[in-house]
Amino acid sequence: MPDETQQPAGPDSPEPGDESVSARVRRRRPWTLMIILVLALVVLAGLIAVVLDRTTIGGRGSVQVPDLRLSTRSDAEETLSELGLELGTVGQVATRTVAVDRLAAQEPAPGTSAERGSAVDVKLAVAPVDADIPDVTGMPQTEAAKALADALFLPLVFSEYSDDVPAGTVVEQAPLGSEVALTGSPVIVFVSLGPGTRGVAVPDVVGQPTKSAFDEMDALGLEVVWLYNNVARAPTGEIVRQAPRAGAFEPAGAPVVAVVSVAVSSTYGDGP
């Protein structure tokens, strides 16, 4: 009969039921390879995302806003559609520099970035006509600017100190509300900075000729903005109104509006 005597285990012989170290390593290798593969796929996906992000202007899902000015409404809508943008609010602006029914303004501005699917607001050019200027005194600045823009006037906002009018509220305007001017012409509004006596006291130049008024304000370091208006009943070349009012305090270098009587429609200028 064969000798069934069990031989003693050597130092390198595994115990019955035990796996060798190499067998355990081989069994773990498939899981290790799968983990490495998943990590590689994650890294690859990230690289692809970066490449795609750099191929679009302004970031993923963004495009560069085109210049729509001087286009027709239909051409602008087609251009925006090709870029994944939409035509937003269509307003009007009175101007003599752009043909009627062509786009004269847009928001966002050309060259900026916008998310795909967002809207671009535009304004169509219309011919200037005589119209009543809204009275915006006492309004908050944002409401005043909107009221003037809705009436097709150009709001120009400056500041002055006021002890009586809360900060951020319109103290006065030039030309005055209810006066008639060409749409598209500027209406200057002065917004309160709140109480204060800092700056320069505005002199009274109403009734003066333009030359003497300019010299007086220039000596005080104040800028002069001239509005020429044919509404006032006064000799041509005489200042019939000013803003801010005489005695108001203006920051150094701030503008003072002088309304000059002339026999022409309202215009805007930098000097007499």
Explain what this protein looks like in three dimensions.
The chain is α+β, with helices and mostly antiparallel strands and 272 residues long. The chain is built from four helices and 16 strands. The protein has a four-stranded mixed β-sheet, covered by helices on one side. Strands 2-5-3 form a three-stranded mixed β-sheet. It has a three-stranded mixed β-sheet with strand order 7-10-8, covered by helices on one side. The radius of gyration is 37 Å and the shape is elongated. It starts with 20 loop residues before the first helix and ends with a strand.
Going by helix content, strand content and strand pairing, the class is alpha+beta
| Largest sheet, spatial ordering of strands | 13-15-12-16
Tally the helices.
4
- Outline the biggest β-sheet: 4 strands, mixed
Task: Briefly characterize the structure.
With 272 residues, this protein is an alpha+beta fold. It has helices at residues 21-55, 73-82, 141-150, 210-219, and strands spanning 62-64, 86-94, 103-107, 113-115, 119-126, 130-132, 154-160, 170-174, 180-182, 186-192, 200-201, 223-229, 239-243, 249-250, 255-261, 267-269. The strands form 6 sheets. Strands 13-15-12-16 form a 4-stranded mixed sheet, with helices on one face. The chain has a 3-stranded mixed sheet with strand order 2-5-3. Strands 7-10-8 form a 3-stranded mixed sheet, covered by helices on one side.
